[in-house]
Write a structure and sequence with these properties.
- The protein is α/β, with parallel strands linked by helices.
- The protein is built from 27 helices and 19 strands.
- Bound molecules: (S)-3-Hydroxyhexanoyl-CoA (3H9).
- The site of (S)-3-Hydroxyhexanoyl-CoA has 25 residues, from strand 5 and helix 3.
């Protein structure tokens, strides 16, 4: 097999080219190829070395698929030291993304140049790791301690210009990178630019208090996570000890993290997210339908957020409401949201104005005749939804995709209201739709392959993470929420308090405990939904008696100032003895004897409820694979990614 690394002498410059699609990851063969190239270069007439990459990106990191297998020489940290020690001037030329081990390779060069669109970063923290090939030691020597802590603990890549500003990139190359980089190397040679080994540089002066400040911030922001804290320790070592000592320390901490459950879980999640985008029984070459214009029906919170999502991706949207007043309200919420993004610094004023300009309003279906996709986002009334789809069937052009954003309704029944069920599917966004990353793509019995494939590709374009679900009540996420909610209620009746349950689950890593979530969503929502169900469908009354009593007492959750908690003017939850009395009375009604419930039991029963339902969802073919369920729960329901999602977490706890 030919090597993914090619070495050629171009005049007096040895050009090393990595070509390992799709992302030039540092597989064993690439590491070997790099080592061989440096050995060849050591014995030839080259005066300097240039590293460039083929394809869409510079090296995007170590090969994650090799993690967990016995490591093979050359090890990346040694290779980086070896390349850095070369006595020929070494320059890295970056396009696409130089990430993780890829950026660590670049940090081993004497100089780095990049095209303006390039990004660099050390995203290992997102895999529960730290940069393990000198990244925590070399970055602060170039960029200083503060910028390095920010870069490495966040894992977020930065643009070439920002990287140049903090010293991580030396030269921006406009135009063709290879040509520009060759000229840059010639210039360096002509200027007699000295070799500049990063590991030999001094870490710039800094405030020693910054390490504890970061530890404190991360204890809150990345609660329960090991890698961010380990990164601070490593950068502190870089600032306080010689390079060799710091590098050995980094290596030790890297290996510890690599062997731990958090990194296993996050690595599982990395691949689960990418696998979720694939539909097993879909032909690979299915032609996609064009989606260049969209209509959203319903201008409420959900519809408005969906409209913003498309506009933010540059796709024009028509927002349809039933009256001028309703449309006015819907558009003003959108404006308010954009203004909020601008004031929080998330969006520039120009970008917000450009996105807003892509959204137009309508109060009838005439403009829908030409759109490529319609997303219906009216309230959960099955009759109304069917009526809307029958109307869409009349006005929309052939081939338009008709989607419902329903959270629970039968997508097949909605599709049957049209003469073109093959064009109908569910696109279930999560609120707030312009922020939440998850998109459940609900495949009806008759949904055409190209409709499904188009929507999966579209999801990526609008920066969502799509997961395919089959038709059932609540699809994947909301279906699993039911037994989770029921167990929560049983735990209350058996003796746990709302605060104990929420704290136990938040300490486990959930973004928010279940009772705080119910209060936020509004207890009246579930109450109304239950009214439409038969007793059998509602299940054990012990699973909903307390929230029913709370709603009947006017406690609808945050919106009414009280629910499972009272809320102060800053929306902080405060326990209320009245709620305890309601819980105790309900327990007595069902003859449930109250006892001390441990935090471990709370976590085990609530995560167990998710897993049991998840298992059924897989058996019934509603989800394609366990990893898809993990993606749904992490992106849609605040399940901690560092536990891999509910299904993966169960495999860890089982041992
Ligand atoms: C590290 O470097 C540790 C070192 O510090 C120390 C070592 C000692 N490995 O995301 P995409 C695959 S840790 C293996 O859809 P995009 C991916 O699975 C690493 N495979 O493309 C997918 O495969 P498939 C630090 C990888 O254009 C395909 O490539 N680096 C890797 O949307 C396309 O990926 C990172 O964490 C990898 N490193 O985004 C970077 N990366 O087609 C991780 C990707 O079969 N990668 N694949 O499903 C990314 O963030 C994105 O992939 C990237 C491209 C931004 C590069």
């Amino acid at each position: 097999m030919s090597s993914p690394v090619n070495y050629t002498l171009t005049g007096n410059i040895g050009v090393i080219t990595v070509d390992n699609p799709p992302v030039n990851a540092l597989s064993h063969a690439v590491r070997q190829g790099l080592r061989d190239a440096f050995e060849t270069a050591a014995g030839d007439a080259s005066e300097a070395l240039l590293l460039v990459c083929e394809g869409r990106t510079f090296i995007a990191g170590a090969d994650i698929s090799e993690f967990g297998q016995p490591p093979k020489e050359p090890f990346l940290p040694d290779l980086c030291d070896h390349m850095e020690a070369s006595d020929k001037l070494f320059v890295a030329a970056i396009h696409g993304t130089a990430l993780g081990g890829g950026f660590e390779v670049a940090l081993s060069a004497d100089y780095r140049c990049a095209v303006p669109s390039a990004k660099v970063g050390l995203p290992e923290v997102k895999l529960g790791l730290l940069p393990g090939a000198g990244g925590t030691q070399r970055t602060p020597r170039l960029a200083g301690v503060d910028a390095s802590l920010q870069l490495i603990t966040s894992g977020a890549p930065i643009a070439a210009a920002a990287a140049k500003e903090i010293g991580l990139v030396d030269e921006i190359i406009d135009g063709d990178l290879r040509e520009g980089a060759l000229a840059y190397v010639q210039q360096l040679l002509a200027d007699n630019a000295p070799q500049r080994r990063t590991s030999a540089l001094e870490v710039p002066a800094h405030d020693a208090a910054v390490f504890d400040q970061f530890r404190g911030q991360l204890a809150k922001k990345a609660r329960g996570q090991l890698a961010p804290q380990a990164i601070v320790d490593c950068v502190e070592k870089a600032a306080t000890t010689p390079y060799e000592e710091g590098a050995a320390y980094e290596r030790k901490r890297f290996m510890e993290l690599m062997a731990g459950d958090q990194s296993k879980a996050l690595r599982h999640f990395f691949f689960a997210e990418r696998a979720a985008a694939k539909i097993d029984d879909l032909p690979k070459d299915v032609a996609l339908r064009p989606v260049e214009s969209v209509a959203v029906i319903g201008g409420g919170t959900m519809g408005g957020g969906i409209a913003m999502t498309f506009a933010n991706a540059g796709i024009p949207v028509t927002l349809v409401e039933i009256s001028d007043d309703a449309l006015e309200r819907g558009l003003s919420i959108i404006e308010h949201n954009y203004a909020g993004s601008v004031s929080r610094g998330k969006l520039s004023e120009e970008k917000a104005a450009a996105c807003r300009a892509l959204i137009t309003g309508a109060t009838d279906y005439t403009p829908l005749a030409d759109v490529d996709l319609v997303v219906e986002a009216v309230f959960e009334d099955p009759g109304l939804k069917k009526e809307i789809f029958a109307k869409l069937d009349e006005v929309c052009k052939d081939g338009a995709i008709l989607a419902t954003n329903t959270s629970y309704q039968d997508v097949n029944a909605i599709a049957a209201a049209t003469q073109r069920p093959q064009d109908v599917l569910g696109l279930h966004f999560f609120s707030p739709a312009h922020i939440m990353k998850l998109l459940e793509v609900v495949r009806g019995d008759k949904t055409a392959a190209d409709v499904l494939a188009t929507c999966m590709a579209l999801a990526k374009r609008i920066r969502k993470v799509p997961v395919v679900a089959g038709v059932c009540y609540g699809f994947i996420g909301n279906r699993m929420l039911q037994p989770y909610a029921q167990q929560t209620q049983l735990l209350l009746l058996e003796g746990a308090t709302p605060e104990q349950i929420d704290t136990a689950m938040e300490n486990f890593g959930m973004a928010m405990g279940p009772l705080r979530v119910f209060d936020l969503a509004g207890l009246d929502v579930g109450y109304k939904a239950r009214e439409a169900l038969s007793d059998e469908e509602k299940g054990d009354p012990a699973g909903y008696r307390v929230p029913d009593l709370l709603v009947e007492a006017g406690r609808l959750g945050q919106k009414s100032g009280s629910g499972f908690y009272n809320y102060d003017d800053k929306r902080r939850p405060v326990p209320d003895p009245e709620v305890d009395r309601i819980i105790e009375a309900s327990a007595a009604e069902f003859g449930i004897e109250r006892r001390a419930v441990s935090d471990e039991e709370i976590v085990a029963r609530l995560t167990g409820a998710l897993v049991d339902e998840g298992q059924k969802i897989i058996e019934e073919g509603i989800a394609q694979r366990a990893g898809d369920i993990d993606v749904v729960y992490v992106y849609g329901y605040g399940f901690p990614a560092f536990r891999g999602g509910p299904m993966f977490n169960a495999t860890l706890t089982k041992g």
